[in-house]
Amino acid sequence: MWSPIRTCSHFSTLNFGVLFSSVDPRLSSSNKLSATNNLDRSVQDRIFWTVPRGELRGSHVAEDEEEMEAQGRGAGRLETERRATGLVNYFLRLLALVTSFTAAVVAGSAKETEPVAANGGASAKLKIKAMGTPQFDYFVVVNAVACVYSAASLGLWAAAKGNSRSLIFVLAVTDVAAVALLFSALGSAAAMAILFRKGASPPAVYPRICNVYDMFCGLVFAAITMSTFAAVALFVLAVFSHFRLYYSSL
């Protein structure tokens, strides 16, 4: 980029000898140097003011406009990213709310009555249900807690509009706790579901029941699937919140 000051400096350097030679040789060395400096300064002033002032002012205005435009583009990009992250957070928390609620309701209402052959060729109707076993009781309670937590966190996020760094920190911690609870409940319920489907040895202790109570087993596996979706959604939210905290601290 052309600069009048740089041009002046270059001109004075190249023509220093000419200017010096034009000084009266009868002057002393100190007077020669002073006279040379005065001539050099006068030449620089004449060259500098040959550039129209309007052009210099216009170049500064153009640079300011370019800087303001770049700042506007950066602010627009940040606003777009903030809205996108807010929508993702809303969606994942709503997904965790719906799936954990569905898992708790389905597992709590899973039951079936079927006739079972008894000794002597007689048959009797036997009812089986998920509630009443410690594993499924824990599973239902944890999913109910996850449902309430998802609703509360969704409301807090909507109220703060995702702009509170302290709220992001709190949710990052509580999301991890909710994920830990959900995965522990999933482990206990999945272990019982495998026993229902495959049984254990000896069969008298844990017989296979899914060949008889197929609707009950279907409800149990549906509840486990819904709870898995809730756990994965909260896990993604926890990772997402930790990344936001990390990048905001840079």
* Residue windows where pLDDT falls under 50 for at least 5 positions: 1-24, 43-51
Which structural class best describes the helix and strand composition? mainly alpha
The number of helical runs is 7
The description of the largest β-sheet is:
2 strands, antiparallel
Mean pLDDT: 75
Overall, the morphology is rod-shaped
State the domain count: 2
Distance between the termini: 34 Å
Overall number of strands: 2
Q: Assess the beta-strand content as a share of residues.
A: 5-15%
User: What is the C-alpha radius of gyration, as a whole number of Å?
Assistant: 40 Å
Question: H/E series, N to C?
Answer: HHHHEEHHH
Task: Give the helix proportion (percent range).
Answer: over 70%
